[in-house]
């Protein structure tokens, strides 16, 4: 519902303003990737960052692939626990541990009585009159099921059974447990109606499920624009959790504690200065390139040119297994790189050059590919910056590639065999490190690793997709084409390796 650039800006602001605290966020692909990119950027500028992904959705069965459970209003309780832990002065790792533990204790399910209105768009009519939607997310996406309107006590009873189901075992709550209850409005539900829901949920938890309800929070904590409806979150509680939830806070909409202290209307949040060493100067192309700079320029131009030439093939493959725009998306990034390399890239500084490539990609590509490659470049940049030597060796490049692959896997959720770009890059890294460790000539090692990348990309024809839109495509269709993202990665990697070999041979 917000642009990628706006979302990333908000995430960066959050990270920079809370560098001693913890970013925890909902398990949506866009959130994972944008928070991942922001975390890598923050780490590259010297900030310490830990992350916790909250997936408290209890409406759907365990999913296939890496999508996982969505993050819903239970995230608010996790935020409160993490914030209270940070306010006590705990080390960042301890704050992260408490937040992760809290995220494993909470389950949520939502019910919608209307569809939210996205700004500038006509409101969807998918939910007809006298209907309700069960198990929805927070972005207006469809729920798990549509049903006839039912009395509130019937709906609440159903939601509680789904959250506490022993079959899915999403939350470790059994009879006799102490729990916290959060009744959350989705944007257009009056507080009085939320109180009615709470009035049905508390005895339901006590009598039907044998639970002790220690706290009840009622209000609009995580909304979905103007959607009419509610969600119920149930969190297993112990004294440590309760202490964190009861800790005083200046958050304006957190329920007022027993002391009756009201938070101020405005909370000033100072922005700490950036640690970036480039904050006070503009990068540009050197007047004279070093031998290393010439080789790097040739590799960049060759890689980007091959991606430009591959646009139509990528789009054709993607039309069968995705949304048909992989080639166009990659094309935009490659064109931007070809334009910027002549003006802005400090080619004598490989680390800063990789960082600038990420900036070019992030500016024009968009979509999942854009954010993944931005993360890739940011992680590689951070690894290369650790090198104190003036010349970047083949081993340094291998370490940077490994760091980039690790970051993409961490934030995107994919690994080898998931039918993604990693199925080209992981074999390339393995072959590269093997040949370098065996003492091969670095140029030959890169050529061999490029062949491994191409073979890995071709092998995706035989893989069942576990990430992205291809997850929903039948296997017989997948078997007819390779993964477009893997093919794109193999092509630019091979072109770069060949360009390096050519430059060395003519040097």
Could you tell me the mean pLDDT?
A: 84
Distance between the termini: 51 Å
Helix and strand content put the structural class at: alpha/beta
Number of distinct helices: 17
Low-confidence segments: 1-21, 258-269, 274-281
- Envelope shape: elongated
Q: SSE string, helix = H, strand = E?
A: HEHEHHEEEHEHEEHHHHHHHHHHH
Record field, number of beta strands = 8
Q: How can the largest sheet be summarized?
A: 6 strands, mixed
Assess the beta-strand content as a share of residues: 5-15%
Walk me through the structure.
- This protein has 507 residues and is α/β, with parallel strands linked by helices.
- It is 50% helix and 9% strand.
- The protein contains 17 helices and 8 strands.
- The protein has helices at residues 4-17, 29-44, 74-87, 92-103, 152-163, 191-208, 239-246, 291-309, 311-321, 326-340, 350-364, 367-385, 394-412, 422-437, 442-459, 475-478, 484-506; strands at 24-26, 52-54, 106-112, 131-134, 145-148, 178-185, 212-219, 229-236.
- It has a 6-stranded mixed sheet with strand order 5-4-3-8-6-7, covered by helices on one side. It has a two-stranded parallel sheet with strand order 1-2.
- β6, α6 and β7 form a beta-alpha-beta unit.
- It is elongated, with a radius of gyration of 25 Å.
- The model is unreliable at 1-21, 258-269 and 274-281 (pLDDT under 50).
């Amino acid at each position: 519902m917000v642009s990628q650039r706006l979302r990333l800006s908000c995430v960066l602001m959050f990270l920079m303003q809370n560098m001693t605290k913890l970013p925890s966020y909902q398990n949506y692909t866009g959130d994972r990737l944008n928070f991942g990119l922001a975390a890598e950027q923050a780490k590259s500028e010297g900030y310490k960052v830990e992350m916790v992904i909250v997936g408290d959705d209890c409406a759907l069965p365990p999913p296939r692939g890496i999508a996982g459970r969505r993050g819903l209003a239970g995230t608010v309780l996790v935020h409160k626990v993490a914030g209270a832990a940070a306010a006590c002065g705990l080390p960042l790792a301890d704050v992260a541990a408490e937040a992760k533990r809290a995220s494993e204790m909470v389950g949520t399910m939502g019910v919608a009585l209307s569809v939210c209105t996205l700004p500038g768009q006509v409101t969807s009519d998918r939910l007809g009159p006298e209907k309700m939607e069960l198990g929805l997310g927070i972005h207006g996406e469809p729920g798990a099921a549509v049903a006839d309107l039912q009395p509130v006590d019937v709906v609440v009873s159903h939601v509680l059974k789904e959250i506490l189901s022993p079959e899915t075992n999403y939350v470790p709550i059994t009879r006799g447990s102490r729990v916290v209850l959060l009744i959350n409005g989705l944007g257009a539900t009056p507080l009085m109606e939320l109180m009615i829901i709470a009035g049905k949920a508390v005895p339901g938890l006590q009598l039907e499920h044998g639970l002790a309800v220690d706290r009840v929070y009622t209000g609009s904590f995580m909304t979905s624009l103007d959607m009419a409806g509610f969600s119920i979150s149930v969190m297993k509680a112990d004294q440590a959790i309760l202490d964190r939830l009861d800790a005083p806070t200046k958050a304006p909409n957190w329920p007022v504690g027993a002391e009756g202290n009201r938070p101020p209307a405005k909370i000033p949040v100072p922005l700490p200065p950036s640690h970036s060493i480039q904050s006070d100067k503009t990068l540009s192309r050197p007047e004279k390139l070093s031998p290393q700079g010439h080789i790097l320029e040739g590799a960049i131009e060759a890689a980007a040119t091959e991606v430009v030439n591959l646009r139509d093939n990528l789009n054709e493959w993607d039309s069968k297994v995705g949304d048909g725009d992989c080639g166009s998306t990659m094309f935009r990034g490659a064109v931007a790189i070809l334009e910027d390399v002549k003006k802005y890239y400090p080619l004598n500084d490989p680390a800063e050059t990789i960082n600038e490539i990420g900036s070019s990609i992030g500016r024009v590509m968009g979509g999942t590919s854009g954010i993944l490659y931005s993360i890739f470049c940011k992680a590689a940049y951070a690894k290369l910056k650790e090198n104190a030597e003036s010349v970047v060796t083949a081993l340094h490049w291998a370490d940077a590639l490994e760091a980039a692959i690790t970051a993409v896997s961490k934030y995107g959720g994919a690994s080898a065999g998931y039918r993604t770009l990693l199925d080209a890059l992981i074999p390339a890294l393995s072959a590269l490190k093997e040949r370098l460790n065996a003492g091969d000539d670095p140029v030959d090692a890169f050529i061999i690793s490029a062949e491994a990348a191409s073979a890995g990309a071709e092998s995706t024809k035989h893989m069942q997709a576990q990430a992205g839109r291809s997850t929903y495509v039948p296997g017989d269709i997948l078997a007819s084409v390779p993964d477009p993202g893997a093919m794109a990665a193999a092509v630019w990697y091979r072109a770069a390796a060949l360009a390096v070999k050519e430059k060395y041979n003519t040097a």
